[in-house]
Amino acid sequence: MKSKQKSLAFYLAGIALAAILLWLDRWTKQLSVEHLKGQADIELIPGVLKLHYLENHGAAFGILQNQQWFFVLMTLAILAVLLYVVIRMPKTVHYLPAFLLAFVLIAGALGNFYDRLAQQYVVDFIYFSLIDFPVFNIADIYVVCGGILLAVFVIFRYKDEDFYFINHKG
After folding, report:
1. Catalytic site includes residue 124
2. Distance from C-alpha of 91 to C-alpha of 10, rounded to nearest angstrom
3. For tag attachment on the chain, is the N or C end more exposed, with fewer CB atoms within 10 Å?
4. Per residue in 106-145, is it b (16+ CB within 10 Å) or e — as a string?
5. What is the per-residue pLDDT across 30-60, written as a single tens digit (0 to 9) for each?
6. Separation CA 57–CA 116 (nearest Å)
7. Catalytic residue (one of 41, 115, 140, 162)
8. Measured on CA atoms in the order 107, 136, 98, 70, is the torsion positive or negative?
């Protein structure tokens, strides 16, 4: 496959993945608004996991309440870095996991970014009551799991020289 065709295939795969994940995030948030807002929690696993509607005006653990400008700037900065890396990353099978995980992170960032811009809060609805974990959503899962998996790949698969493309001029 020619280089330009391979690059196009990579980008289309990444964009398709991000679009599907973003749609899933939006759909689950809409379902939570329709079925959980103003309703009693739904116990999925008693004493462990429940669906609980929450309008989050801050970040995890309730920090930075109503600091929308901060979240907008941070999200734009993170998206810019991710896009810079994705564009510069070689489009080879070796980098495919990192490439796709970058699009998982992009989907997570865009999912919550959309909420913040559209309604000034993020809809959260998944609650692990067993450990009193903060209520979260599908986009949060993308960010956390994508970030952890990317870290695992960076630590165990890629070597320092695999990141030459970040600063390489050409």
Report:
1. yes
2. 7
3. C
4. bbbbbbbbbbbeeeebbbbbbbebeeeebbbbbbbbbbee
5. 999 999 999 999 999 999 999 999 999 877 6
6. 8
7. 140
8. positive
State yes or no: is 140 an active-site residue: yes
Q: Where are the alpha helices (DSSP H) in the chain?
A: 3-35, 68-88, 96-119, 138-156
Continuous segment of H or E residues that includes residue 52 = strand 49-56
Q: How far is CA 59 from CA 10, 42, 81, 137, in A?
A: 32, 23, 21, 12
Distance CA 131, CA 164 (A): 42
Rounded to whole angstroms, the Cα distance separating 145 from 97 reads: 13
**Set 25, 41, 115, 124: catalytic member:** 124
Retrieve residue 97's tokens: 């996991």
Cβ-in-10-Å burial (0-12, 13-18, 19+) of 22 comes to: buried
d(CA 107, CA 142): 7
Tokens for 5, please give them: 């065709």
What is the per-residue pLDDT across 122-134, written as a single tens digit (0 to 9) for each? 999 999 999 988 8
Return d(Cα 29, Cα 78) in angstroms, integer. 23
